[in-house]
């Protein structure tokens, strides 16, 4: 049996640099692994099966997570077993804490954990590059979730440059109870006029490499080109983001295509106070105080 921690991710920066002929968007994003994490267990079995347990947190919308072959964890097991020519299955136990459909790569990280777990369980021996090559077939965030830590992601998310993790910070995560369609957000973004903008990913990459990436400096580089699109449709996201900075965050931003918002705090007490205020203001939202993660797993 193999047990793996599957961490969430946030996008400290997210820019779209173009589109491939097949329609996939080309990204330039600094991705950061964070707590919370799901727990994934894989056991040898004759066929593939899935047991799903979900935290009962407000706003986690786990009712949208399928417990059958539609689950991306199941698809990951199918993919690697087929690729390796293994004619047996795996019993997957998935304990979800990461809110679903949140812009936190909840599904991608489970898929990454299953690829890594099954690789070890059956002694398949694929290296990380090969696992990432399989992973990108399941989703653009899967290769990052396989490698973890902090990285500049380019291409469709498959070209990863590992980077040092920012200095310790307190992350306040709030996912309002809003359903965001990733497809619609990208379509609305595509309809916008192209605009000139600073390469914040490049700025943050330099900062991380040089050291001194304290919360304030990191927050000077935050950007997400999808934020304007999602926030225009769901003003609550902007409201939460602005509230976080009012409550002492060095900076705050929507992650991925939304709707989760993260605030980065230098001061743990301010983060706790902000957590309490968010609980009063948004009782139906998922809320957590967490930290950066750095590839750690069990
Ligand atoms: P990303 O940041 O990679 O775009 P996300 O956090 O926005 O991802 P997910 O949590 O991966 O979104 O969920 C997207 C959809 O995938 C859900 O609505 C759900 O129906 C489906 N899904 C399939 N498997 C899983 C899984 N293991 N965990 C979460 N969602 C899953």
Structure description:
By secondary structure, this protein is α+β, with helices and mostly antiparallel strands. It folds into two domains: 2-162, 2-Layer Sandwich (Ribosomal Protein S5, domain 2), CATH 3.30.230.10; 170-290, GHMP kinase, C-terminal domain (Alpha-Beta Plaits), CATH 3.30.70.890. The chain is 35% helix and 29% strand. It contains ten helices and eleven strands. The chain has helices spanning 72-83, 106-121, 128-138, 142-147, 182-190, 200-210, 215-219, 227-233, 235-246, 268-281; strands at 2-19, 25-45, 49-54, 89-96, 150-155, 159-163, 170-175, 223-224, 251-254, 261-265, 286-290. Strands 1, 2, 3, 4, 5, 6 and 8 form a seven-stranded mixed β-sheet that branches. Strands 9-10-7-11 form a four-stranded antiparallel β-sheet. A hairpin with a 3-residue loop joins strand 5 (150-155) and strand 6. Helix 1 packs parallel to helix 2, helix 2 packs across helix 3 (128-138) and helix 8 (227-233) crosses helix 9 (235-246). The chain is globular and about 55 Å long. The model has no long low-confidence stretch (mean pLDDT 95). Adenosine-5'-triphosphate (ATP) binds next to helix 1 and helix 2.
């Amino acid at each position: 049996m193999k047990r793996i921690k599957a961490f969430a991710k946030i996008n400290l920066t997210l820019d779209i640099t173009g589109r491939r002929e097949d329609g996939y968007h080309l990204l330039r994003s600094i991705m950061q692994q964070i707590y919370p994490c799901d727990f994934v267990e894989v056991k040898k079995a004759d066929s593939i099966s899935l047991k799903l347990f979900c935290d009962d947190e407000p706003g986690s919308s786990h009712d949208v997570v399928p417990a059958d072959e539609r689950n991306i964890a199941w698809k990951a097991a199918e993919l690697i077993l087929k690729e390796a020519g293994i004619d047996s299955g795996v019993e997957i136990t998935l304990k979800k804490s990461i809110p679903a459909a949140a812009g936190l790569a909840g599904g991608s990280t489970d898929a990454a954990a299953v690829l890594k777990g099954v690789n070890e369980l059956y002694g398949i021996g694929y290296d990380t590059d090969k696992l990432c090559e399989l992973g990108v077939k399941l989703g653009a965030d899967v290769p990052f979730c396989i490698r973890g830590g902090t990285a500049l992601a380019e291409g469709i998310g498959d070209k990863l440059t590992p980077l040092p993790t920012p200095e310790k910070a307190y992350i306040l995560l709030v996912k309002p109870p809003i359903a965001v369609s990733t497809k619609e957000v990208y379509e609305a973004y595509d309809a916008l006029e192209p605009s000139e903008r600073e390469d914040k990913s490049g700025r943050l990459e330099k900062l991380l490499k040089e050291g001194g990436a304290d919360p304030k400096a990191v927050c000077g580089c935050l950007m997400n080109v999808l934020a304007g699109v999602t926030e225009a449709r769901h003003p609550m996201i902007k409201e939460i983001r602005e509230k976080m900075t009012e409550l002492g965050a060095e900076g705050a931003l929507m992650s991925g295509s939304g709707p989760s918002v993260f605030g980065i705090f230098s001061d743990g007490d301010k983060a706790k106070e902000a957590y309490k205020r968010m609980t009063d203001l948004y009782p139906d939202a998922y809320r957590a105080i967490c930290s950066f993660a750095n590839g750690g797993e069990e």
